UniProtKB/TrEMBL annotation, chains A, B:
One of its GO terms (molecular function) is DNA-binding transcription factor activity. This is Transcriptional regulator, BadM/Rrf2 family. It comes from Cnuella takakiae. GO terms for cellular component: cytosol. SUPFAM superfamilies: Winged helix' DNA-binding domain. Signal peptide: none annotated.
Amino acid sequence: MIFSKTFGYALRGILYIALMQDEKRFVQIEEMAQKLGVPRHFLGKIMKRLVKEGMLLSVKGPYGGYTLSDATLQMPLLRLEDLTDGLGTFNNCVLRLRACNATNPCPLHFQMERIKGDLRRVMETTTIADLLHKDKKEFINSIATYEFDGSMLENEN
Amino acid sequence: MIFSKTFGYALRGILYIALMQDEKRFVQIEEMAQKLGVPRHFLGKIMKRLVKEGMLLSVKGPYGGYTLSDATLQMPLLRLEDLTDGLGTFNNCVLRLRACNATNPCPLHFQMERIKGDLRRVMETTTIADLLHKDKKEFINSIATYEFDGSMLENEN
DNA sequence: TGAATAAAAGACATCGTTGTCCTTTATGGT
DNA sequence: ACCATAAAGGACAACGATGTCTTTTATTCA
Ligand code: FES
Ligand code: FES
């Protein structure tokens, strides 16, 4: 499946936080989980990890929550993939046979080397910021599990 | 990880059978598992599945085992992927958000559409037979978990 | 200082993948 | 018919990914 669920949740969480930065300083996990349609506590675990790894900042207590710096916006997706799924997709043999290299290639090595290289290039050259753009309501719908009318954006904050 | 272990075992099993066809009519699971360095009973399950789906033929009893037809050699890898992992990699959104299409694309859709298209093309146009070639000993080493000296090829058959 | 809020932390549950083991069925040789 | 061989089938175990729940820690505000 290329990416794990964890990677998907992490990316969507980060994008949601990035999107909210002009409105509010910190975003709470509860709000993220609801808007994105993602399991709350599981998302919490993932966010905690990202904080520890320096990709997010968090503040406890009232008015606290998660936020991110410009540096994070400029990070390539590969960094996030590394923190969640690891880089096995690129470093390991697709058939999981010892080391992956041209010296002792598996039957799929050369075909997959191309694909893996292309994928890696995309993950290396695409930053979090690159995924943003567009208008806000449409963008939130594009990362939410279920659509919701944009009115929820203004409401209870 | 792109492919499951199951897919890897299945492919290596099929290639091993294909490779042995000039020597012996049927290949036993025991031999396959040992030579490839793969869990025996798990491999059995996978082979059973491939037989049921028409990708392999099997015969029970003494001198029995698995074999495959020319038709199987001409099958694209995509068929095997379908029988093991399914085609979710190609049909689903990489973030697992509803349907994957350009109408309501996720933030990674267009980047991943290209990669997924390339991968699919490889899987569609590459057949089992395409992976064979080369000299036998070298090829077996390329699908075995651990190297073994070629003498094992001649020995106890 | 006390109450409320929100993340951090850790224990535990569920589920799909991977792997093992035992019994049943089919086949060939005697 | 009987025995040996080998796949088919099904029960179950181990494990990692995913998901839930409760307790602890940090922070804000009154
Ligand atoms: S050796 Fe298998 S993908 Fe490189
Ligand atoms: S919509 Fe996400 S990959 Fe197509």
